[in-house]
Amino acid sequence: MDPAELLDPAALADRTALSEDTVRTLLGGGEPTVNAVNERVRTRIKALADAYLTKTGKRMSDLAGSISQELGVSAFWARKVCAGEKVPSVELLHGLVDFFGVTGGEAFFTAPAAEALNQALLPVLAALQPTPDSPQAAGDPPTEVLWGYDNVRSIALRQANGLPPERWKVLNATLEALLELDDQEADR
Fold it and tell me: What pTM did the predictor assign?
């Protein structure tokens, strides 16, 4: 993977429906503005709607009509939701997950910014994991377990050669946070 793509704030913003400023703040090690779950839902639906309109060239009335038909709601309500003015019920939020084709279910809309960004970075980490037939994965089970943590980080950092020092720190911190989350989930 191209290191520039790995930490490209614009691409990460597109994948997470977070603002590019929020992504930059998180990648810089800062804390984004804390917002209530309803605000996160409204903001992310609006970001997805705006991206959909840009990508398709359609008008808001077309999008609202499609959502209205698919979810069985009024076009007026659908327009308000897409404009970030209304919060959908959980049931309708589930329908929007399907409509926009987002991964992660309703949590895509409700997760705090740091969690949303971590979810977008998990596939990057997974892509850096060795396959069973890779030379690095060969060996006894303890070697494979050790390889999973230290070598994934070093491979990621090697692939990111040429990143500015502040991005190196962010990449390392992100990988550590993801591994910590994985450990916490394993303990459950």
Answer: 0.64
Report yes or no: 124 and 1 within 8 Å, Cβ to Cβ: yes
Greater confidence (79 vs 178) lies with: 79
Closest CA to 65 of 51, 76, 80, 50: 76
* Alpha carbon distance 56, 18 (integer Å): 20
Question: Which two tokens mark 22?
Answer: 């929020």
CATH code of the domain made up of 37-110: 1.10.260
pLDDT-above-70 percentage for the chain: 71
Residue with the two structure tokens 């997805």: 48
What's the distance, Cα to Cα, between the start and end of the chain in Å?
A: 32
Tell me which residue of 43, 56, 36 sits closest to 16, measured CA to CA: 43
Residue type at 24 in one-letter notation: R
Which residues in 64-94 are b (16+ Cβ under 10 Å) and which e? bebbbeebebebebbbbbbebebbbeeebbe
Element (DSSP H or E) covering residue 185: helix 165-187
Q: What's the number of CA atoms in the CB half-sphere (13 Å) around residue 137?
A: 9
Span 136-169, pLDDT tens digits? 445 444 434 434 444 455 555 555 556 666 766 7
Q: Where are the domains of the chain?
A: 3-18+112-187, 37-110
Extract the tokens encoding 167. 């991005």
Per DSSP, 137 falls in state G
